[in-house]
Design brief:
By secondary structure, the protein is α/β, with parallel strands linked by helices. It contains twelve helices and eight strands. The strands form three sheets. It has a four-stranded parallel beta sheet with strand order 2-1-3-4, sandwiched between helices. The protein has a two-stranded parallel ribbon with strand order 5-6. Helix 2 crosses helix 6 and helix 7 runs parallel beside helix 12. It is globular.
Length: 319
C-alpha cells in the first residue's frame, strides 16, 4: 500500500516541478536544509546546531501519526528532494524512502540511515515467550527500528551527526562539535542514572500489555520483559492465550504495575489487571516518542525530557 501511495505522490511531484519550472526554490538560500523523519533525530540536530543561524531544520512526522503509519505528502517529498541532509530510521517502515531518494533533485544530498549507522549493533525484532507474533512465515528478518530509545545509541548518533554537519558547514564546525560534546555529557549522566535504577531493581522482568518497542533500552541495562506484541506489530487485539499468559506472568512475578506504550488505549492492560488475583494493578505508560506532535514540541518536549519521564516510570515499575 505504501508503495502505491508513493508512486501517486511521485507523479504529483513531477507535475508540481513542471508547473513551477523545475526544482523548488531553496529556503533561505545559502543555509543548510536538514530534513528528518522522527522527533528524536530532530531534537538531536536542534541541540547540535544551537547558536548557529546557518541551518534550516524540518521534521516530517510532527502530527502525532505513528511512524509505522506515516505516509509522506507531496510537500514532504518536495522537502526531501531539495534538502542537503536527510536523516531517517531505515527498516521496513521507511521503505518509501528509497523511491523518494530516487526522485531527489539534489545530487549532493547527504543521507543518514540510522540503522546503517548502528551497523552490527542493530537488533532484529524478537518474539519472546507468550508474545503474539505478527510475522508471516518465510519472511525476511526485520530489524527493530526503535534505535533512538537507547541513550547509548543516541550518543553515537549525536556525534555522527555533528561530524556530518561540520563537514557540510565548516564555518560552524566548532559549534557543532562543542554542542555535541555537551549534549553527550547529558546523555552519559542520564545513562548512569538508568544503570543505577536497573542495578537496584527488585523486579528485573516487566510485563507490557501492549506493543514493546523498548528492546534497545532494556538490553542496555540487562532488563527482561513479556509483551503482547512486537514493537512494530500492527495488531491490537490480543488472543485469549496471550491475555492468560500475561495475567499469569504478572501474578507469578508479584508485579504491582502493568506497562503500556504511549498511544495505546490501555484496554488490554485493564483486562489483564482485572484478571489477576488481586483484580487491581497500576497501569503505567512508557513513551516511545513515535507520535510527538508540533504542540508537544512548542510546550517544551525534548528527547531528554521524555527519557527523564521514562526513567521515573521505570523506577516505579522496577520496584
Amino acid at each position: 500500500m505504501k508503495k502505491i501511495i508513493f508512486l501517486v505522490l511521485s507523479a504529483l511531484l513531477l507535475l508540481s516541478l513542471a508547473s513551477c519550472g523545475g526544482v523548488p526554490e531553496e529556503k533561505d538560500n545559502g543555509k543548510i536544509n536538514v530534513v528528518v523523519t522522527i522527533f528524536p533525530a530532530y531534537d538531536w540536530v536542534r541541540e547540535i546546531a544551537d547558536g548557529t543561524e546557518n541551518l534550516n531544520l524540518e521534521l516530517l512526522c510532527d502530527s502525532g501519526v505513528d511512524m509505522h503509519s506515516f505516509q509522506p505528502s507531496v510537500k514532504d517529498v518536495l522537502a526531501i528532494s531539495s534538502c542537503d541532509v536527510f536523516i531517517y530510521v531505515g527498516g521496513e517502515s521507511d521503505e518509501w524512502v528509497d523511491d523518494a531518494l530516487e526522485n531527489a533533485e539534489n545530487d549532493d544530498m547527504i543521507v543518514i540511515d540510522l540503522l546503517d549507522v548502528l551497523g552490527d549493533a542493530a537488533k532484529a525484532e524478537e518474539t519472546v515467550e507468550g508474545m503474539q507474533s505478527g510475522k508471516k512465515g518465510g519472511g525476511q528478518e526485520e530489524y527493530d527500528e526503535h534505535v533512538w530509545l537507547s541513550l547509548r545509541n543516541a550518543k553515537l548518533y549525536v556525534n555522527y551527526i555533528a561530524d556530518i554537519l561540520s563537514e557540510a558547514d565548516g564555518e560552524n564546525a566548532k559549534t557543532y562539535v562543542e554542542n555535541a560534546e555537551s549534549y553527550a555529557g547529558k546523555l552519559d549522566e542520564l545513562d548512569e542514572r538508568y544503570e543505577t535504577a536497573a542495578n537496584n531493581a527488585k523486579n528485573k522482568v516487566l510485563v507490557f500489555a501492549d506493543r514493546f518497542p523498548f528492546r534497545y533500552l532494556f538490553d542496555d541495562y540487562g532488563l527482561s520483559y513479556c509483551a503482547a506484541f512486537e514493537g512494530c506489530s500492527a495488531e491490537t487485539e490480543a488472543s485469549f492465550e496471550t491475555i492468560v499468559f500475561l495475567t499469569e506472568k504478572v501474578d507469578e512475578l508479584g508485579l504491582e504495575d502493568i506497562l503500556i506504550t504511549d498511544g495505546g488505549d490501555g484496554k488490554l492492560a485493564e483486562t489483564v489487571a482485572a484478571s489477576t488475583k488481586s483484580h487491581e494493578k497500576n497501569i503505567l505508560s512508557l513513551d516511545s516518542m513515535q507520535s510527538v506532535t508540533k504542540k508537544d514540541m512548542q510546550e517544551g518536549e525534548t528527547y531528554l525530557s521524555v527519557m527523564e519521564k521514562n526513567l521515573s516510570v521505570l523506577k516505579t515499575a522496577l520496584g
